[in-house]
Structure of Small GTPase family RAB protein:
Amino acid sequence: DRDSRQLGRPSPENGGGDAKNLRVKLVLLGDSGVGKSCIVLRFVRGQFDPTSKVTVGASFLSQTIALQDSTTVKFEIWDTAGQERYAALAPLYYRGAAVAVIAYDITSPESFSKAQYWVKELQKHGSPDIVMALVGNKADLQEKREVAVEDGMDYAEKNGMFFIETSAKTADNINELFEVSDNLFTIGQVPPYL
Ligand code: GDP
């Protein structure tokens, strides 16, 4: 995919020895408008650009992270751009996904319910060892908060998920979100996607 090659930063040269280059398919789920595209663009391009939204079709971006032991992890990030509505596409979307990021908007209880729906879907149809992260986005909108931090945290804990609140706008916890995934990877809980 040409776009992903252009957008993904080149991984460090593999000098041999113990160096490993790993690929992780990561799928993004959550209600429309919770900020999925903005989270990815913040992570991959380091900017907040609400106007560059993909409205039709799934978008695909990649980002490579270098770990301290010269391993590189290339995240292949799949953003549905609303196509999660079409049940027929779901198996294709989830197939081979090692990590699922399920996002909601902390100002929208409806989006929190929808996130719970996606968790159940993944528990039914995703790979049994998929790693799931629950993300409460728009954490910069504290004065409009309608989902308590504890509610997100409790739900994530009950479902064996990681939990983090982020802001794609201010960049708060965006890198930390993806570090969660690569830490997991290095301790061997996430099977490589090949
Ligand atoms: P998606 O449909 O889930 O991909 O959502 P988008 O990434 O297109 O974002 C939807 C809207 O939410 C846009 O207007 C963004 O400007 C806004 N948005 C996204 N992330 C944040 C955030 O962290 N804070 C605030 N205040 N707005 C955000």
